[in-house]
Amino acid sequence: MYIRREVGRLLPHAAPSLSDFLFVSLLVWLFATGSGWEALLADGDTGWHIRTGDYVLNTGSVPTTDLFSFSRPGEPWFAWEWLADVIFALLHDQWGLLGVVVVAGVVITLTAVVLFRHMLWRGANVFAALAVVLPCVGAASIHFLARPHIFTLLLLAVSLWVLERDRRAPGVSVWILVPLSALWANLHGGFLALLACVGLLAAGCAAEALLVSGRGWTAARRYAALAGACSLATLLNPFGYRLHLHIAQYLRSDWIREAVDEFQSPKFRSENLLQFELLLLAGLLLAGILLSKRRIADALPVLFWAHLSLSSVRHVPVFVIVVGPLIAQELTCVWESWTATAPTKSLAGILNAVARDLAPGFRRVSFWSVALVLAVLLLTPSSRWPRDFPAAKFPVGLVGANRDRLASARIFTSDEWADYLIYRGWPRQRVFLDGRSDFYGPVLGKEYLQLLEGRTGWRDLLKKHGFRFVLLPEDAPLASHLHACGDWRQTAADRQAVLFERISSAPARVPNQSSMLHR
User: Fold this and answer.
1) Could you give the percent of the chain with pLDDT greater than 70?
2) How far is it, in rounded angstroms, from Cα 18 to Cα 23?
3) Backbone angles phi, psi at 164, to 5 degrees
4) Are 468 and 410 in contact (CB under 8 A)?
5) Which of 152, 174, 212, 215 is the most buried (most CB within 10 A)?
6) What pLDDT does residue 213 have?
7) DSSP states along 48-90
8) Cα gap 483→487, rounded to integer Å
9) What is the dihedral of CA 452, 454, 455, 461, to 10 degrees?
10) What confidence category does residue 162 fall into, taking pLDDT thresholds of 50, 70 and 90?
11) What is the DSSP letter of 389?
12) Residue 67 C-alpha from the chain's centroid
């Protein structure tokens, strides 16, 4: 009888839930159709992240000096995403780029499901939650890449739910954010987003205690203590407090804000940024409503991240994670107020009944999520899996055909293509400048842009740095100069890239670094 009773109790949980189907549907929509999996590799930074992880696994230590350049060899470098790099390297060792993109896709999709579940937990109607989470996913997709920031998106979605649960029913579980902060600080610099959100919550609670009679200071003190504990926990990284100083300097750099696209303001021309615009307008309207109700602790994060997302497009995914549950909750309140007197057989009444019936199915998960994901992966044709970085964006064919010639030679190329060269040729291959914009600084960065754009003085810079090869798209300004320059000749080309070699002097060589290990 006991066994029968336990089986009967567990049987409903063994069936697939609506959350399982939502997870798989989002995974298919985002990545299993079109160029979804390959699109996760649209940023070459993934290449040097993998190779950094290789270094950590081979040496058992986190690098503190540069591994990849000939322009700044041995200079101090903060490998501040080392733990995420190790994860990517382990996946790459076992399954190649396939493993990297699958896990990245799963983490991104899981973030969306957590966000949706958070909306339901706050009391949002199923249809309201779906109506909000889909544009949230669409807006955040501008930064859907196989890079360490995906862990920030997931951890932030989880952390904000934990914080909201604690606000409703304070308990010890909120302190899980302290060790989570330590882990986060070794995965990605986005741990600062958590510190900002907890700090804003403490400030908002303090403001409410000042302005609203009957609200004490207990919550403000609690979250101020939590912010302090989380901040101390983030010091548990290989660089200690120096990591925080480095990130602060990085975020304040005018040169990086001007030169790096993802640090610039959004341009409202694409579909995903139009979705962000809709959420931004809704969020700002909601912030006004919240302030009118003196719900300052809820309004402050919305305003803070709205400002940052307008200053830098990379903050758009963070903004939608912060504002999405609040919009869904408020939208549900408006709907329920409008339909409060609707007959049960009216369209509004039927929709309310359907939403109530569906909600329990979205509030549980089962092992079927894993089974359904495996089914999607097995049913995906092998031709759709990436075996290399996208050939439409990177010089895959040309680099592969000239790998031996390029190895150990000084090459000028774009930062994105330099990331790819690191992936294909490290440790023999060194680069002039890659995607680590925090490492190279404005002096070298300005020389890089001067060369890339073929501005006055490009000849002197090519000689100064002893480049033997130049690898660029055919339509790059510098490529047109080199076609007309007698010191350089075109030695290879395809539809993606053109390779020039210096013919007027002996090529400079990179110092032998055979001591570097390579997996």
Assistant:
1) 93
2) 9
3) -70, -35
4) yes
5) 152
6) 66
7) HHHHHHHHHHHHSS---B-SSBSSSTT-B---TTHHHHHHHHH
8) 10
9) 70
10) very high
11) S
12) 23
Neighbours of 480 (CB within 10 A): 13
Give, for 501, the enclosing helix (H) or strand (E).
strand 498-502
The residues near 59 (Cβ < 8 Å, ≥ 6 apart) are 517
Q: What is the C-alpha separation between 427 and 27, in angstroms, rounded?
A: 35
- For residue 431, give the nearest of 408, 447, 405 by alpha carbon: 408
| Total residue count of the chain as it appears in this document | 519
Average pLDDT over residues 399-403: 92
Task: State the pLDDT at residue 361.
Answer: 80
Beta-carbon contacts of 460 under 8 Å, excluding residues fewer than 6 positions away, are: none
Is the Cβ–Cβ distance between 428 and 411 less than 8 Å?
no
Q: Are 470 and 477 in contact (CB under 8 A)?
A: no
What pLDDT, in 10s, does the model give residues 196-222? 999 999 999 999 998 876 677 899 999
Residue (of 31, 158, 182) closest to 101 by Cα position: 31
The pTM of this model reads 0.91
CB 326 within 8 A of CB 155: no
pLDDT for 16-46, tens place per residue? 788 888 898 999 888 887 778 999 999 999 9
For 469, the enclosing helix (H) or strand (E) is strand 469-472
Whole-number pLDDT of residue 259: 78
For the record, the structure tokens of 384 come out as: 């759709």
- For residue 504, name the pLDDT band (cuts at 50, 70, 90): low
Which residues contact residue 363 at a Cβ distance below 8 angstroms, ignoring those fewer than 6 apart? 19, 117, 120, 121
Structure-block tokens of residue 15: 């069936």
3-state secondary structure of 176: helix
Which conformational region is residue 60 in: left (phi greater than 0), alpha (psi within -120 to 50 degrees), or beta? left
Q: Is the pLDDT of residue 62 over 60?
A: yes
Question: Which pLDDT band, with edges at 50, 70 and 90, does 5 fall under?
Answer: low
Burial class (CB in 10 A: 0-12, 13-18, 19+), 318: buried
In this structure, what token pair is assigned to residue 416? 């994105």
Closest among 116, 132, 126, 119 to 359, alpha carbons compared: 126
* Residues 85, 93 contacting (CB under 8 angstroms): no
Q: Which two tokens stand for residue 195?
A: 């510190």
Helix 126-140 vs helix 271-292: angle between axes, to the nearest 10 degrees?
Answer: 130
Alpha carbon distance 13, 394 (integer Å): 46
CB of 191 within 8 A of CB of 153?
no
Answer for the pair 434, 58: CB distance below 8 angstroms, yes or no: no
Using only C-alpha atoms, the chain has a radius of gyration, in whole angstroms, of 26
